[in-house]
Every structure is written in C-alpha cells, then in structure tokens.
Queue: 2 jobs
Job 1
Amino acid sequence: MKAVAIRQPGRELCLLDIDLPEIKPDEVLVKTIATGVCSTDRELLTYLDLVPPPGASFLVIGHEAVGRVAQVGAAVSQVATGDLVVPTVRRGCRRCPFCKAGRSDLCRTGRYTERGILGLHGFMSEFFVEKETNVVKIPPELGELAVLLEPLSVGLKAIIESLKVQEARLGRAAAAAGHAMFSSALIVGGGSLGLLSSLVLLQHSTQATVVDLDETNGVKASVARALGARYIRLDDYRRGIEVDCGRLRRDGGAMDCDLLIDTSGDPATYSQLSELVAPNGIIVLLGLPDGHKHRRVGIHHFITSLVMQNKVILGSVNASREHFERGIPYLAPPRRKFEDTVGALITHTLPFARYREAFDIGPRDRVKVVLDWR
Ligand code: BGC
Ligand code: ZN
C-alpha cells in the first residue's frame, strides 16, 4: 500500500510502498478515508527531531485521520466492520499514574509515543492498523468532517482545562456576580486550531474574536465570520512588532475577554494582547514558537516547556478574608466546562498522490488541507 512518509537522510517527503500490517486479536484494520495536514507535519519536515519507529529509516506521517473499519480481530467487541472511526494520537508510557488512568495527554515521564509524530508510523497510508481501544467510533452522518476531530480535541481539552481552573478559583464569586464563565474569548491565530477552538466556544455562547495577520477578505476571516466569530486583522493595529491595544480595544468595542487562547506561538504578539484580558482572566498557550526545538534557552524554551508539558502559570496578588479564615486551621490545627460552516474549515481536499502540492499550499490560502485516500 502507498504511504506518505519523511525519509532519512535528508528529510525527504515521499510516497512509499509499504506492507499492509496484519492485525492482532485486539486490533482493527482501517481503510483510510481522509487525513489532515497539520503544522506539526510541516515542522517534522524542517526542524523537529524526526524519530521513526525502531529500525525504520522513515516515518509515515499523519496524525489527523478518519477511516472505515475493514476488518476486526477476534477479540474486538466495541467496533464492527463498516464503522467510521477516528484514531487517537498518543500512546502512553504505561508507567505513570496519568497514563495508567487514561490521561496520556498528561504523561509525567515523557516516555510516550505519538502516531505519525514520534516513534510510531502515522495514518497517511491507504490502510492503518490500531487497537480497538485507540479508535473512536464516529456517527456515520459526520462523514469525512471527522478528520477535524483530532485538532478540535486539542482545543477542547485546553478549554476544559481552563474552565476547571477558573471554576475552581472563581466559581462562587462569578456565579454571585451573574457572570457566565467565559463570556468572551480572544483567539490569537486563525488556523485550524484557532478556528476549531472558536467553534467550541461559540457553541457555549462565548463571544469569540479571532485575530490573525491575514486580510479581512481572506479565507481565515471568512471562515471565522461564517462560524459566528469576529475577525480582526492584526496588521491594521501594528507598527513593527508593537500592537496598539488601545486602538484595538476602541475599534473592537468592549474587547476585554476572560479567556485568551494563543495558537500563534508568537510571544511578542500575545504578550501584548494579554492587555485585553480582563482581571482574573486566563491565558492559554497552545502554539509553539517557530523553530522552538533549536532554542534551548530564553523565552522560546520557557514557552515550549509550558505547552509541551501542560504547565500552569497563574498571576496572583493579595488575599481576602476567606483566605485569612481558611488559614487559621493551619496555624491552630483543631484535629486535623453547523455542518456548512464546519465544512468550510476544510479549504482544500487533494487525492493522496498530490501530497507535495498539499504541503505547498501557503498559510494565507489555507485553513485545513486534507488528503483523500479513497
Ligand atoms: C498534535 C498532538 C500532539 C502534538 C505534539 C499536535 O500537532 O495534534 O496530538 O500531541 O502535536 O506532538
Ligand atoms: Zn496536529
């Protein structure tokens, strides 16, 4: 079968003929329908460490996929031939409490592998094999749109985590003041991750504003607006790298948001935009700085470690009566949270044999580029 891979030496993007793997009793054989191209794939072609599976001189890439089950192993019970499925990406270390509890996204040891990214072949191939426990059954009506599920899951996780943090610290007071948890959000970067995160927020009635460098008549802007988000072209508010937040705030109306999600990875931009985050707001970083792997010191290194290791940073000042009261026992121990518009996110679909063109589509022309494997 054909597969899109990056071959060593020289990080050559190529179409290979590889063997169709046989399935074990707990595995399923999936006929690939579509795979998405992600910035991580582009980074693997340039500067990320390329880690093929042990003994291999190439890595089949692709971690965003949807397919149809073609064959099931003898012990498979949750999925059947013909089912539409989306595979997850990360395989845990099997040792740490988080991986053991099914939260390999929070792996403590760093000894995880990721399909199509790190140590395991990915899904850009005519078929793939996976354990039934690593595939998610998809309602048939979703069809190939399900290729967006993986990047959506990344944005959704970030939103859920930030909600948990905010509920834990502001819940009671926010409820008393009659505030919805995220009434407005600023999303930095109008790529698929930014737009899918906006999609999630908009469905929870959060006002979403997407900022990006691209023109207001560009593809990102039109998808953002179709989803119901406001789009602002950051370049209209910048002189060099300096962002005029005052003007942005005046033109954008009451822009102060209680959630900022960065998908750009550009610290100079979002650190300035953080001025538009309301008091007690939360800032979530999802983007990695450009070329991050080669900068082992300074802000790039700091941000990469925050993002790649799910770390939390929180600003804090002063303490109130509640904290005084809660502190007492420590001193005196008593006893001890659209179909057309969603489809618009997929700006290009190309047959897999045109994989090179797919990788050549520039950032201003694309949101999600998809390879068709049927
Ligand atoms: C993928 C994640 C993965 C991350 C880091 C992203 O592009 O969507 O699943 O964990 O890259 O490798
Ligand atoms: Zn990705």
Job 2
Amino acid sequence: MKKIVILLGAPGSGKGTQAKIIASKYDYTHISTGDLLRGLEQDSDVDPQDKAMLENMKTGKLVPDDLVYKLAFEKIRAGLTSGRGVVLDGAIRNVTQAEKYQEFFEQLGYADEVSVLEIRISDQTSFNRLAKRKVCERCGYIMPYSPETENLKNCPHCTGRLKSRQDDKPEIIKKRIREQGNQALAPLVKFYRDKGLLRVIDGERSISQVEKEVEKKLENV
Ligand code: AP5
C-alpha cells in the first residue's frame, strides 16, 4: 500500500468519514485541511493575516493556496518522517495545489508513493447529507445520519455535544457545491487520471460498502 493516500470528492462525499477509517485501520496520520483551518479559527495566537483568509471558508469558498500549504506540509513531513503513511482529506482542491503537492512529495522522495481515490456522489446527495450532518465538538466524530439518531444531542463515543458545522447552512452548502462540487473538481480529477493515479469509488453506497471498496483499491496497487 502506498504511503500517501489522497482523498478527493465533493463536499459531503465521505472524505472525512473514510479518512478516519483508513487512519485507524492502517495507522496512518489523518490530515484534514478543513479541520486544520477550523482549528486556526479557534486559536487566539494566529497571525491576523491568516485569520482574515479564513473568511472565505465561512462563505463556502476555498481559502488561498499558500495558507493550505503552510498548514498541511508540516504535518505531512512529520507523518512521513515518523515512518507512518498519511491520508490527505480534502487537502488538494485544484490543479495548482496538486502540482505544488507533487513537487513537495518529490522533494521528500515520496513521488512514487501516491494513491488517489475520488469518492463520487451527486450534487443532490452532497446537499442532503450536509444538511443533516452533525459532528462532535469534542472528539470530531462524524455522526452517520439515521432517522433513529437524528435527535441525538451527545456523541455516542465521548458524550461531547453534537453540532451542525457553521458552513452546513443551506445557502452555504449550495455555494460550496457550486465552488467545490463535481464541476469544480473536474480539472483536478483529469490531472490525476492523466497521470494514471486516479481510482474512482461510488460514494452513493453505504459507509461500510464504500469502506470495502476503498480497502480493495488501496491494497491492490
Ligand atoms: P472540509 O472540512 O474539508 O469540507 P468539505 O470538503 O466540504 O467536505 P466535508 O467535510 O463537508 O465532507 P466530507 O467529504 O468530509 O464528508 P463527511 O465524511 O463529513 O473543508 C471546509 C472548508 O475549508 C472548505 O469549504 C474550504 O473553504 C476550506 N478548505 C479545506 N481544504 C482546502 C484546500 N485544500 N484548499 C482551499 N480551501 C480549503 O460526510 C458527510 C456526511 O455524510 C456525514 O454526516 C456522514 O456521516 C455522511 N456519510 C458519509 N459517507 C456516507 C455514505 N457512504 N452513506 C451515507 N452517509 C454518509
């Protein structure tokens, strides 16, 4: 199995859900740029210029590329030098970023250690899932939606409070789908397909079916 696993997909495609499973199953470091950016928002010591860039996130747009590199590269280097693999969850969103990451992997001597999985869902599924998503504010658990658990207030793992994300409001979800959904991702998907690195997973199936497909694709390289 390759040491660098890149997960692509529209908002709500299950990148976070599957990245957590991969990290736990293979002892890989999970690097979610969304989580790193949300962490920055809570940090009072952050450079005010960096903080200003986070405004994009609140309105459903991508944040500037340089901020992403600043947050992600250090974590990737640390993960790989510790001997573990890394799973990149939403860390690459456009071709400019993909090229920059590729250069970085080359510098680290890991250019041949890349697997790319696109988890594909429709825009409608994207909207439906995000409108119902709840996340634990303490441990980050992403609560799978079901009618039985819809009204649950606390995390089944740590009892932390379950909350909707700030950017999971209907108007912002629609903007995210426009700016970061399948249409926006098409050039990035082509970039990896042309390099022969892309494998596509049907993300419309259940979490455990997607997990099995991910496992098959990662282990058969
Ligand atoms: P980020 O936090 O990464 O948001 P996102 O890409 O919109 O993805 P999500 O976290 O919303 O969804 P997901 O695919 O992880 O799905 P999840 O597993 O939660 O980024 C936030 C913001 O940060 C961006 O908008 C941008 O501004 C900025 N940003 C981040 N990275 C950046 C970068 N590289 N460059 C520039 N800006 C960047 O699942 C969703 C729901 O569906 C959950 O409820 C889950 O339980 C459920 N679910 C998952 N899989 C299934 C399934 N198979 N069946 C049924 N339900 C499922």
